[in-house]
Specification:
With 400 residues, this protein is mainly alpha-helical. The protein contains 16 helices and four strands. The model has no long low-confidence stretch (mean pLDDT 93).
Length: 400
Amino acid sequence: MANPKKVYFPGMNGIRFIAAFSVIFHHIEQSKFWIDIPNLWGTTIVDNIGHKGRIIFFVLSGFLITYLFLAEIKKTGKIDLKKFHMRRNLRVWPLYIVVILLGFFVLPLFNSLTCNHCGFDFGPTSFNDLLTISYWNKFAVYLLMFANFGRFLWPPIGGLSQLWSIGVQEQFYLFWPSMTRLFKKNFLPMVVSFIIIKVLIEAVLRFYNYNWDLYQLPFINHLQLGTLIKFWEIFAVEQMALGALAAYVFIEEKSKILNLIYSKVFATFIVTIYIFLFFVKVDFYFHGLVEGLIATFLLLNISTNPKFPVKLEHPTLNYLGNISYGIYLFHNFFILITLNILVQYLGYENQLIFNILLYAISIALTLLFSSLSYKYFESYFLKLKGKFEVIKSNRRMNVK
């Protein structure tokens, strides 16, 4: 039975770490592509690894935070919005601001690389020169967590290209607590309607895109429509809403649904499909919804099904999950630092040695600084965050 007094889901930290770690591989190959050295960017497996890591983050976030909302409603009859936003800000903003400052003011001092494939009709241009374009506008947009908008306004910023997904989450949580509180008596139909509306808007946009010659719109051109579709696709709030739906099913103990999800046949099917989708190009209609559903079913089995064979519950995984926010925010910074060192002092003629060193050094630096950040910086704000908890979370923190 779900216990709303003290919350801990086994395996969640392991899921967090695996999701964060998978994104590192995705971005290492992307960075190699940007500077035009041999890479695996664009291959199916590398593309899917990164996207699935991000989807898991979105679903997991929607599940955990909505579960706490629903547990708080059960305990107090309401959601304390002020306390939620204080908790959220204390967890997200301090390290986020540090990384923004590193990306805009520190990394340019060490980054001499040229971006050969940064789009926006730029030819080969240094990352630092690209950064100077609309510099302070860009700084404000990224600082205020609208990096998902910045992604479509300017070329990528060295070390900060991952921040768009943080922006999506923070924009979602500007309105989701209020919606949960407003529709607390009709939460299920609200969530289902929210997901349907999000998906239907994408369907309409794609319909006009594919039938542009027949239904040209007077207020937008074809290129702008394509950009809008891409923006709406990465604004994957339906995936967080799917996590929220799972939280509702679990906390309300919808046994028929849970028994179906927990059944061996269904769980085996989900794992098989999840693995299969790593090896095929994922670009079908509503793939974000489908992959979000698969991630939701997988997450529920790992963390709430005692009979599921994959547990991901281990002290090392718990610790790595605790520092996963730092891993996600720092990794691009150290990928570029490592690339600068290797390109300058080693060269990439020997691809084997180059890639071994690139992966080993960038991952080691990311883990090291994420650990230091968690122990000496984030933990201070996490203690403050605990003062605003209505439902206590048992994080099994390994760093005192």
